[in-house]
C-alpha cells in the first residue's frame, strides 16, 4: 500500500498541506521565472531517497535555451549531482533490467531553440520538425521513466513548461499529456509492451518481476507563468484544457508587497481530498533551498 502522504521535502510546507502530497496524483507548481520552482522540484526529488530509497528524476521539456539549473541547485542544496541521460540514445533493450546499467536521473528531451514551442509560433515545417523530435524520442522517454520506476523511483519532476496563450496550442502540454497518461499512470506491463514491442515476450518475465504500483508515483509539474505577483496568479482565469483542472494539488509561487518590501510567498490554491491552509505562506531562498518563514 502506498504511504498516506508524500513529503514535498519541505516539512513546514507539508504542515500546510495537511501532512504532504497525495501519492499517485499530479501536483502543479506555477510561478514566474526565478521564483523558486526548480528548487521546489529539487526538494521533492531529493526527499525520495529517505522515503523510497531512491531519489526522484527530472524530465525537462525546456526549449528556449535557458538552463533550468537542476544540477547546480541539487549540488548546492544537497551535494547531489544528478546524472543526465542521453536524449539522442535509444534505450538498449538487451539486459534492460540490469541494475548496474546507468539510466540517468534527468532527461532533457528537446533541442534548445531559443523560443517557445507553440503551434501559433511555428510554421508548418517547424511544427513538423517538433513532431518528428517527439516521435524520435518517445522510446528514450519511455525507457528513461519506466527504467527508473522499475528500479524503485517513485517521484518525477517535469520542468520547463512555458506559458502559452492557448493551452491546446502547446506542443509541450501535448507531450506531457502523453507521458502522464501513457507512462506514469498506465499499467507497467502495458508500458513494458510499448517499450519492448516485438521483444516483449522475451522480456515479460523480467517485466513482471519489476512491476510497480502506479498509485505510488508522485508527479510534480513546474509551469512558468507570465504573472509574477501572487495576487495575479490567484485571480487568473482558467482556459479550456488548462492543466489546473486536472491537477490534484495546485501551488502558486509569487511575489507579495509587504510594507516597503517585495517578498516571495506561496498559496495553496487546490489540494483535492485533503485539508490545506488558506494562508499566504512567506518564504525565502538560501543555499539550502526554500525556507518557509515563521
What topology does this entry show?
Elements: H1 11-16, E1 26-31, H2 37-52, E2 57-60, H3 70-78, E3 106-108, H4 124-150, E4 155-161, H5 171-184, H6 188-196, H7 200-209, E5 218-224, H8 230-234, E6 249-258, E7 261-271, E8 281-286, E9 289-292
Helix pairs in contact: 2-3, 4-5, 4-6, 6-7
Summarize this structure as a short list of keywords or feature phrases.
294 residues; alpha/beta; 9-stranded mixed sheet; 8 helices; 9 strands; globular
Report on this structure.
Helix 4 packs across helix 6 (188-196) and helix 6 (188-196) runs antiparallel to helix 7 (200-209). 33% of the residues lie in helices and 20% in strands. By secondary structure, it is α/β, with parallel strands linked by helices. The protein has a nine-stranded mixed beta sheet with strand order 3-2-4-5-1-6-7-8-9, with helices on both faces. The two termini are 35 Å apart. It is globular. It has helices at 11-16, 37-52, 70-78, 124-150, 171-184, 188-196, 200-209, 230-234, and strands at residues 26-31, 57-60, 106-108, 155-161, 218-224, 249-258, 261-271, 281-286, 289-292. It has eight helices and nine strands.
Amino acid at each position: 500500500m502506498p504511504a498516506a502522504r508524500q513529503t514535498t521535502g519541505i516539512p513546514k510546507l507539508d504542515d500546510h498541506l495537511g501532512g504532504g502530497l497525495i501519492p499517485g496524483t499530479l501536483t502543479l507548481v506555477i510561478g514566474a521565472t526565478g521564483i523558486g520552482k526548480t528548487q521546489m522540484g529539487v526538494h521533492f526529488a531529493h526527499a525520495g531517497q529517505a522515503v523510497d530509497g531512491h531519489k526522484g528524476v527530472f524530465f525537462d521539456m525546456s526549449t528556449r535555451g535557458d538552463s533550468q539549473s537542476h544540477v547546480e541547485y541539487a549540488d548546492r542544496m544537497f551535494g547531489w549531482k544528478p546524472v543526465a541521460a542521453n536524449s539522442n540514445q535509444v534505450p538498449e533493450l538487451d539486459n534492460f533490467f540490469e541494475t548496474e546499467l546507468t539510466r540517468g536521473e534527468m532527461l532533457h528531451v528537446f533541442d534548445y531553440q531559443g523560443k517557445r514551442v507553440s503551434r501559433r509560433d511555428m510554421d508548418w515545417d517547424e511544427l513538423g520538425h517538433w513532431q518528428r523530435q517527439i516521435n524520435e524520442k518517445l522510446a528514450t522517454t519511455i525507457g528513461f521513466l519506466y527504467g527508473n520506476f522499475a528500479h524503485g523511483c517513485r517521484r518525477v519532476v517535469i520542468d520547463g513548461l512555458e506559458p502559452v496563450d492557448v493551452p491546446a496550442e502547446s506542443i509541450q502540454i501535448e507531450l506531457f499529456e502523453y507521458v502522464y497518461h501513457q507512462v506514469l499512470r498506465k499499467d507497467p506491463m502495458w508500458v513494458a509492451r510499448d517499450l519492448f514491442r516485438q521483444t516483449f515476450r522475451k522480456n515479460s518475465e523480467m517485466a513482471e518481476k519489476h512491476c510497480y504500483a502506479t498509485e505510488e508515483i508522485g508527479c510534480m509539474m513546474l509551469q512558468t507563468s507570465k504573472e509574477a505577483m501572487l495576487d495575479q496568479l490567484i485571480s487568473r482565469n482558467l482556459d479550456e484544457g488548462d492543466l489546473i483542472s486536472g491537477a490534484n494539488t495546485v501551488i502558486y509561487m509569487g511575489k507579495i508587497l509587504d510594507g516597503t518590501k517585495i517578498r516571495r510567498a506561496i498559496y495553496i490554491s487546490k489540494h483535492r481530498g485533503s485539508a490545506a491552509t488558506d494562508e499566504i505562506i512567506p518564504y525565502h531562498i538560501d543555499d539550502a533551498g526554500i525556507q518557509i518563514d515563521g
